[in-house]
Structure of ATPase, E1-E2 type:FAD linked oxidase, C-terminal:FAD linked oxidase, N-terminal:
Amino acid sequence: MSIAMPKPSEAVLSRREEIVSALRVIVPGEGVVDATNEMKAFESDGLTAYRQLPLVVVLPDNVGQVSRVLKYCHENDIPVVPRGAGTSLSGGALPLEDGVLLVLSKFNKVLDIDFDNRCAVVQPGVTNLGITKAVEHRGFYYAPDPSSQIACSIGGNIAENSGGVHCLKYGLTANNVLGIEFVTIEGEIVRLGGKHLDADGHYDMLGLMTGSEGLLGVVTEVTVRILQAPETARAVLIGFPSSEQAGECVASIIAKGIIPGGMEMMDRPAIHAAEDFVNAGYPRDVEALLIVELDGPKAEVDHLLTEVEAIAGENGATTTRVSQNEEERAAFWAGRKAAFPAVGRISPDYYCMDGTIPRKELPKVLAGMKAMEKKYGLKCANVFHAGDGNLHPLVLYDANAGELERAEEFGNDILKLCVEVGGVLTGEHGVGVEKRDLMPEMFSETDMNHQQRVKCTFDAKHLLNPGKVFPQLHRCAELGRMHVHKGEVAFPDLPRF
Ligand SMILES: Cc1cc2nc3c(=O)[nH]c(=O)nc-3n(C[C@H](O)[C@H](O)[C@H](O)COP(=O)(O)OP(=O)(O)OC[C@H]3O[C@@H](n4cnc5c(N)ncnc54)[C@H](O)[C@@H]3O)c2cc1C
């Protein structure tokens, strides 16, 4: 691990047995796991280069237990890392040696489906796809669709404000969550929003909680918007001799006022890896591939398809192929959705980045990545949520050959370039551990102090998911007054990791 985590508290480590016993009283039966071999399953999330056994794993199955566990941890100064399905790619669910790993997987029930109000109330451990499965018999679905949707939990989606191919038209998690129940580190149970469409209260607390990466509270119930499936959806594959032309085509489609249901881009290495893996029907003789999906009433879809094909031609497309049936549409998407595991077959390891840029900067960023491939002697495959400028470069490396640190530096340079061209460090995977130390690339000290004041309001002792998101811990009372004068750091005892 090249990113340092906070030093574990000896006081907590030395009281492990006492802590485990106390937690067993709160969560009886098999809800507390403390055997090393059983905790191994939880030592990592999707950022698999980072591993750490937790102090203990706790799997509550009701909100009362969550509340009492958090209250106990607060009173005893024990850090807590919330975990859903553990698919985070930024290390957000990475355990801490002196921390309780609070796993929400037993919260797996759909509580209420309200077709009249077009919403569903679910527990946070329900998978993203599980929501669609629960409502599809009436022609409904849940729109945000991360590629990990068969596994990732809706609680994790809220914590990361997750996105997917359909978010260009239908919005991210933040735009599809109507309400939550969450528990504070002090054990208070709080409800925000609900089935009604307008926010309650003066501040947009629901907006604040969405994307808070487990740093502000533990989500225990979720109300989401469900949508009626469109009458028709058709996808078109468009191949280009260069990524620049594909990028121009994306910009032209949006400039024409067309908002596709999804608009994804893959470069040559990603196209070949995906095609070899799932036989999606992708052309192999192109440098860049767009998958554009149009959805809505049939007449509208047919008309927009013609327009998109014309725009593609104007931008130098060499192949276009429109899906003729649902099976073919699903096959087009299967390749894109399997792009990460497909790349996993051509390289011993890969490191998935997640920067977002203004769309028009794509050619510049692609050229920059090409130069970085030479600089670091590593290859990179690219998949993009092209419509919203969210890049997922996959840096290919071999951990056994000692290439991890080089891959991380490559990834850091990509993200710095994204910020340099006016973009941001993360589109949908969160900051977590992975991008924590890059936060100063994007935020000034003042910006970060303001963000940490929000954290302090919810969790003054910094017990919820410490070591994630913020590169330094500040004692809340001292926030904003920490300056380095001639190299002498004030409050030298504050943990800097
Ligand atoms: C192959 C693959 C493809 C992916 N594709 C996408 C994609 O297309 N789009 C996308 O956005 N992401 C994608 N991801 C990333 C990941 O799936 C998402 O970030 C997802 O939302 C994480 O959900 P989870 O349940 O696995 O959360 P975890 O990994 O368990 O946790 C993620 C974060 O959420 C916090 N958390 C979890 N549950 C709760 C809760 N109940 N209350 C408070 N905090 C909580 C954790 O502390 C952690 O900080 C992909 C991951 C993989 C492995």
User: Anything to note?
Assistant: The radius of gyration is 23 Å. The pocket of flavin-adenine dinucleotide is lined by residues 45-46, 81-89, 92-93, 104, 124, 146-148, 152-153, 155-157, 159-160, 162-164, 213-214, 218-219, 340, 428-429, 465 (CB under 6 Å). The chain has 17 helices and 20 strands.
